[in-house]
Design brief:
InterPro entries: Bact_Sigma-Reg, PPM-type-like_dom_sf, PPM-type_phosphatase-like_dom
Largest sheet: 5 strands, antiparallel
Organism: Leptospira idonii
CATH topology of the largest domain: Phosphatase 2c, domain 1
Radius of gyration: 38 Å
Helix content: 40-55%
Order of helices and strands: HHHHHHHHHEEEHHHEEEEEEEEHHHE
Number of strands: 12
Number of domains: 2
Protein name: Serine/threonine-protein phosphatase
Keywords: Hydrolase, Membrane, Transmembrane, Transmembrane helix
CATH class of the largest domain: Alpha Beta
CATH architecture of the largest domain: 4-Layer Sandwich
CATH superfamily of the largest domain: PPM-type phosphatase domain
Shape: elongated
GO molecular function: phosphatase activity
Length: about 450
């Protein structure tokens, strides 16, 4: 506890380095103007003296002092919006004049009516000076509160020296020096406020700079990840369209085509657990693994996914992912599906309806079993459509407060199954999600891939 406090006060009172100094300079004028505005508004409190004892007995004599305070504050207010070289100097001069005039007005009341009652009233009025001292804590200069505290202590020493003789015998020494103690304490408290504010400003600036840097890095990472996705590829035997959305610019949803020598093609799609930078990195690693995997594994979903399972468990044991790999054999018109803990692939025969193809498999990265999936082989024909998606889509919450679910997605697909172009189907899916289910954004990484056999 003591070490924590020591570190706090050490950081608070240590001399600022060049970087901190430059940061403070960027905001100094803003805080100075804020101080000037509030000081100008609050100084009108001094006019209440005209209705308080004993000042109401000689208002005409006190009023010029109060008007002098207003002039000093008004000049400062006007100067704050000009291109003045040293606004801080003007602030201190204006404060010195305004505080001196108010002190003179209060001292005048003691000499005008030298009664014990007026003496204690004057002491009470002097306590109001803690307000202008604390107002200086709006600024960011380290010594901003010390200067007014010093001026007021000086004023009060002069005030005590010129007190009428009657008060020296009838009052205690503590009552005379109590305002000095108050001014000194208030100056120290205000200085701590300023130092704490300066520390917060520099800390927030650094955090802002770090965030800006991270944002730039994320935007670069997004460009890199976007480049990894298939771009206008001509896949023999397949048409495709895909949609993806990441709440954090980059995410762990990824797909790729594996083109084989015989003219056949594999479709790989994965959803790495979590979202953001780490999942995006793992998804990128999986793309590299799929691209460099031994050729014979690309012909078998179970071998490919088992290979990925072993690599995730061995090299990236803190991460896991669901994945699906579909191998299209255009020679025999057959497809082989391997599903490792991923939502079921959806199939729509030509002139038929969309329905799920149930498959069995375990999620990647835990090395749960071997083989990791049970392959499912089925025939296809020209015009068949397939939809592969990640769970961010069906886990989205509708306007009724429930998840869309696989049934809701099937409802959208079958409602628009007559659309002949995949692009039109994609647009309709997004429109239905928004208009019929009230889903305007996705809280998790979301992707769906539309495939059609030529």
């Amino acid at each position: 506890m003591s070490q924590t406090l020591y570190k706090y006060f050490h950081d608070l009172f240590k001399k600022p380095n060049r970087t901190d100094f430059e940061i403070i300079q960027l905001v100094e004028l803003k805080y100075d103007r804020e101080y000037i505005f509030y000081t100008f508004i609050i100084h009108f409190i001094a006019y209440f003296l005209l209705i308080l004892p004993p000042f109401f007995s000689f208002r005409a004599e006190v009023l010029p002092y109060l008007l002098g305070i207003t002039i000093a504050r008004l000049v400062l207010l006007l100067q704050s919006y000009t291109k003045i070289v040293n606004l801080g100097f003007v602030i201190y001069v204006s404060g010195f004049i305004a505080d001196a005039l108010l002190y003179i007005a209060i001292a005048y009341s003691i000499h005008k009516i030298p009664s014990l009652e007026n003496y204690y009233l004057a002491n009470a009025y002097l306590m109001v000076f803690i307000i202008p001292i604390l107002l200086f804590s709006f600024r960011v200069q380290r010594s901003a509160c010390l200067y007014p505290g010093f001026f007021l202590i000086l004023f009060h020493c002069v005030y005590i020296y010129f007190l009428p003789d009657v008060f020296w015998d009838e009052t205690t020494h503590f009552s005379k020096i109590f305002p000095i103690i108050t001014f000194a304490g208030t100056s120290l408290v205000g200085s701590v406020f300023i130092l704490n504010k300066r520390k917060n400003i520099t800390d927030l600036y650094r955090l802002s700079e770090e965030r800006r840097y991270i944002q730039q890095e994320l935007e670069l990472a997004k460009k890199v990840q976007d480049a990894l996705f298939p771009k206008d590829l001509d896949i023999n035997g397949l048409k495709y369209k895909y949609y993806r959305k990441n709440p954090n610019l980059i995410g762990g949803d990824f797909f790729d085509f594996v083109q084989l020598r015989e003219g056949n093609v594999g479709v790989f799609l994965t959803d790495v657990a979590g979202h953001g930078i780490s999942s995006a990195m793992v998804a990128s690693i999986m793309k590299v693994l799929v691209s460099t995997i031994p050729y014979r594994f690309k012909l078998s979903p179970s071998k490919l996914l088992e290979y990925l399972d072993e690599r995730l468990a061995k090299d990236l044991n803190k991460y896991h992912a669901s994945a699906i790999y579909v191998f299209f054999d255009f020679i025999e018109k057959k497809m082989n599906i391997g599903n490792a803990g991923h939502p079921y692939i959806i199939h729509c025969p030509k002139d038929g309806s969309f329905q799920e193809i149930e498959t069995e498999g375990a999620i990647l990265g835990f090395n749960i079993r071997s083989p990791i999936v049970y392959e499912k082989i089925m025939e296809f024909q020209s015009g068949d459509r397939f939809v592969i998606y990640t769970d961010g889509l069906i886990e989205s919450t509708t306007s009724k407060g429930v998840e869309l679910g696989a049934d809701g997605f099937l409802q959208i697909l079958n409602k628009n199954k007559e659309l002949r172009k995949l692009q039109d189907l994609e647009i309709s899916i997004l429109h239905e999600l928004k208009s019929e289910f009230g889903i305007e954004s996705f809280s998790d990484d979301t992707m769906f891939l539309l495939l059609e056999v030529d």
